[in-house]
Amino acid sequence: MEAKTLVLGVIGADVHAVGNKILEIALTEAGFNVVNLGVLVSQKEFVEAALETDADAILVSSLYGHAEIDARGLREALIEAGIGDILMYIGGYLVVGNQDWSEVEAKFKQLGFDRVYPPSTLPEDFIPTLREDLGM
Q1: How many domains does the chain divide into?
Q2: Domain of 86?
Q3: What confidence tens digit (pLDDT) does each residue in 87-108 have?
Q4: From 16, 66, 114, 133, the catalytic residue
């Protein structure tokens, strides 16, 4: 079975690179083909990379708390590009301040994300779910 392709990146004006590198290594070791866009990634770059690589999923991370602003409209951009059904995950410090996690999760699901993960999530916490969501 061919490896599933994931587009990975840190959205918006965020420059937190360490977690992004850890995710790339863990996902590669788990057998995925990882296209790591790095930090400071725009929505347009996520869409273009997903199209160019025929990606199976997009994994967005954000650690500076402004993910809601950065990610708003991403699902719509993917729909416009003809890949609106692509699997989308987001995780990290998604909001500023202490907000109830269930509300944060609901907010990002409304933005079109399939799975939403809190800051403490480790790769081994979500990789089994990712495999399942991708039908592996």
Answers
A1: 1
A2: 5-12+21-133
A3: 999 999 999 988 999 999 999 9
A4: 16
